[in-house]
């Protein structure tokens, strides 16, 4: 076990690069429309121990009428009471959520297989059985105002400005969360009128995924929903699509100075989306991404990007943050010039991809990273099932979910070049950011940073094992937890945060940081520093089967750092190691992975009287 990572890294450096293929997720589906218009999509997944019941309504924030947005959010919340996701949903193997998207509402619960009948009964209440009272609507309005906008990739103001400019006079130009003024003016009569139009069978899709028998599930659904009447659905307006042009916005205040570049992209069913993901990974990955290299050489932080797709269009946003320099006046003066340089660099790198085919190694790495993103999104059954529903309702075909992974793994050079040309010729919004006045700059975490363990550990008692040498392992066995998180926290004298950052910058004795990043990208893993109050160390995220590699990778850096004075001196301060593993993994297997690399570890013992002297630490092992 201890040599697993070292051997894999050496092989990776000497063997030719080949694409990492993985079989597509296979499932059996059945699609049917009842006489009242309700669409039913059943997906058999015999390997699962759970079942997901979802209701999708063909209405979203794009249906909000002017002058304000946010009414759809109130209507959707009014369908469920405060305890709708509580009570029967108590338990570690059960999940429930709902949301307002630009094109749809969704209500989803995941329960053990025996809970299918109960969930069908509960979801039947979403189809016009009982309308909200005045008090319920008032409570909903209060909650929406209190919570504000829904979670967005950036701060609310940044995301709203980009959307409004990318989609002028189009429903996609505002957030699903809504405007406070519009939410405040909503009354119960308007809510009931809208719900009587939208929450009807002809406007809904029922998606059931899991270990089910199609015939039995169809019989239950027909009994439960077949008696509901047909109701006509209001027609959806199809506004004009924005023209392709380059739009420069004036500088706006942000959490950190920098530049946002937003490109309008095709809709959710487009093949080009896979190529865009591969293109951005190829340009921005920290191993050999040319855009990452040029921007960091120009004094910028590593670029980070996000992409969202809706039924008719999508938005790809690349953000580049500048380092804080000088006084506030000088920062404001120099930001616009540096942002113009960033825009020029991005344009040049896109042009190079179009003119010059990318190399095989770079393309393979980018495909592996794009495939990793898909696998991470599907790491839990609940998330995978919800993605199937999204593929059916928003993208228009549930089978697109099965094609998404092989599409990214098998992209060709020409596909990536056409994706770069698409960004060159589509509507583009450029917005510089200057630092907010007053207070320090809050720097966003770079792409790939997973510094916060899953919140679903609440209520789970960990398995705690003390190895007797200052190392403890805490294992949270969380069913259907999504990607498994491995975090190695360290404690000792003084502030160890600078030391942790130095470790990532210097690498280990055997392998440099670029070689470690190369290993991470090919195996779909992540590694970053976590330095918060009460938490200092390294953190990774990946599949449960990769726990031994993640544990060993972090131990390799902490136990055998590069022999720089700073790295060696930093390790002298470590007196306690706490390895935390959160995921759907058996505690015995996780404990064995930790023991294999940490059981023989001993604290570093400095010579007496020279505590803190660099370059003198020698391990007792």
Task: Describe the overall structure.
- It contains 20 helices and 18 strands.
- Mean pLDDT is 78; it is low at 10-24, 146-154, 326-332, 438-455 and 605-621.
- The protein has helices at residues 4-14, 71-78, 116-124, 134-147, 156-166, 180-184, 188-198, 214-225, 272-284, 290-297, 328-355, 360-377, 381-393, 400-409, 413-425, 497-506, 513-522, 547-559, 565-571, 587-598, and strands at 28-33, 39-44, 50-57, 95-100, 105-112, 204-210, 246-248, 252-254, 258-265, 304-309, 314-321, 428-435, 463-466, 471-477, 484-492, 528-532, 535-542, 574-583.
- The protein is an alpha+beta fold and 621 residues long.
- α2 (71-78) packs across α7 (188-198) and α9 (272-284) packs across α12 (360-377).
- A hairpin with a 4-residue loop joins β13 (463-466) and β14.
Keyword list:
alpha+beta; 621 residues; 38% helix; disordered C terminus; 6-stranded mixed β-sheet; single chain; 18 strands
SSE blueprint and pairings:
Blueprint: H1 4-14, E1 28-33, E2 39-44, E3 50-57, H2 71-78, E4 95-100, E5 105-112, H3 116-124, H4 134-147, H5 156-166, H6 180-184, H7 188-198, E6 204-210, H8 214-225, E7 246-248, E8 252-254, E9 258-265, H9 272-284, H10 290-297, E10 304-309, E11 314-321, H11 328-355, H12 360-377, H13 381-393, H14 400-409, H15 413-425, E12 428-435, E13 463-466, E14 471-477, E15 484-492, H16 497-506, H17 513-522, E16 528-532, E17 535-542, H18 547-559, H19 565-571, E18 574-583, H20 587-598
Parallel strand pairs: 2-6, 7-12, 8-12, 14-18
Antiparallel strand pairs: 1-2, 3-5, 3-6, 4-5, 9-11, 9-12, 10-11, 13-14, 15-17, 15-18, 16-17
Helix pairs in contact: 1-17, 2-4, 2-7, 3-8, 9-12, 9-15, 10-11, 11-15, 12-14, 16-19, 18-20
């Amino acid at each position: 076990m201890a040599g697993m990572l070292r051997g894999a890294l050496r092989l990776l450096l000497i063997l030719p690069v080949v694409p990492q293929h993985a079989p597509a997720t296979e499932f059996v589906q059945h699609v049917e429309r009842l006489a009242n218009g309700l669409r039913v999509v059943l997906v058999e997944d015999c390997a699962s121990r759970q079942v997901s019941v979802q209701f999708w309504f063909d209405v979203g924030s794009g249906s909000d009428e002017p002058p304000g947005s946010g009414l759809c959010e109130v209507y959707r919340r009014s369908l469920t009471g405060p305890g709708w996701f509580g009570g029967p949903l108590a338990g570690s193997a059960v999940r429930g959520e709902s949301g307002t998207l630009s094109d749809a509402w969704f209500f989803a619960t995941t329960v053990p297989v025996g809970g299918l009948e109960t969930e069908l009964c509960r979801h039947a209440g979403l189809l016009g059985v009982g309308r909200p009272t005045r008090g319920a609507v008032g409570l909903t309005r209060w909650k929406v105002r209190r919570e504000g906008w829904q979670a967005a990739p950036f701060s609310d103001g940044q995301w709203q400005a980009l959307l409004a400019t990318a989609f002028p006079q189009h429903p996609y130009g505002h957030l699903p969360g809504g405007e406070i003024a519009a939410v405040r003016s909503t009354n119960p009569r308007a809510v009931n009128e809208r719900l009587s139009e939208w929450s009807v069978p002809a406007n809904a899709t029922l998606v059931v995924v899991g270990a089910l028998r199609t015939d039995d599930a169809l019989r239950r659904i027909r009994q439960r929903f077949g008696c509901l009447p047909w109701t006509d659905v209001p027609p959806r307006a199809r506004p004009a699509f924005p023209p392709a042009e380059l739009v420069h916005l004036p500088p706006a205040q942000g959490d950190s100075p920098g530049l946002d570049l937003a490109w309008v992209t095709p809709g959710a069913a487009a093949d080009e989306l896979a190529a865009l993901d591969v293109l951005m990974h190829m340009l921005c990955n920290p191993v050999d991404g040319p855009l990452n290299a040029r921007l960091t050489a120009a004094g910028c932080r590593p670029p980070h990007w996000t992409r969202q797709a809706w039924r008719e269009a999508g938005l790809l946003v690349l953000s580049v943050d500048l380092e804080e320099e000088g006084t506030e006046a000088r920062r404001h003066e120099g930001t616009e010039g540096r942002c113009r340089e960033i825009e020029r660099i991005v344009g040049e790198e896109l042009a190079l991809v179009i003119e010059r085919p990318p190399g095989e190694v770079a393309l393979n790495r980018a495909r592996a990273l794009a495939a990793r993103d898909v696998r991470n999104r599907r790491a839990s059954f609940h998330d995978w099932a919800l993605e199937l529903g999204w593929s059916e309702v928003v993208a228009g075909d549930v089978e697109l979910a099965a094609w998404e992974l092989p599409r990214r793994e098998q992209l060709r050079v020409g596909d990536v070049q056409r994706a770069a040309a698409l960004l060159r010729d589509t509507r583009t919004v450029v917005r510089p950011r200057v630092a907010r006045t007053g207070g320090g700059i809050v720097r966003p975490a770079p792409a790939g940073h997973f510094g916060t363990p899953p919140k679903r550990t609440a209520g789970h008692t960990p398995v705690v094992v003390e190895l007797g040498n200052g190392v403890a392992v805490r294992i949270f066995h969380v069913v259907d937890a999504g990607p498994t998180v491995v975090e190695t926290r360290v404690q000792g004298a003084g502030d160890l945060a600078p030391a942790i950052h130095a470790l990532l910058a210097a690498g280990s004795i055997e392998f440099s940081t670029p070689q470690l990043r190369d290993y991470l990208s090919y195996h779909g893993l992540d590694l970053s520093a976590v330095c918060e109050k009460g938490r200092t160390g390294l953190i990774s995220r990946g599949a449960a089967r990769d726990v031994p590699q993640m544990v060993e990778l972090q131990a390799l850096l902490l136990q055998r750092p590069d022999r720089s004075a700073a790295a060696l001196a930093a390790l002298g301060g470590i007196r306690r190691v706490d390895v935390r593993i959160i995921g759907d993994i058996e505690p015995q297997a996780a404990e064995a992975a930790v023991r294999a690399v940490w059981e023989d570890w001993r604290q570093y013992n400095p010579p007496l009287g020279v505590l803190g002297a660099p370059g003198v630490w020698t391990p007792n092992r």
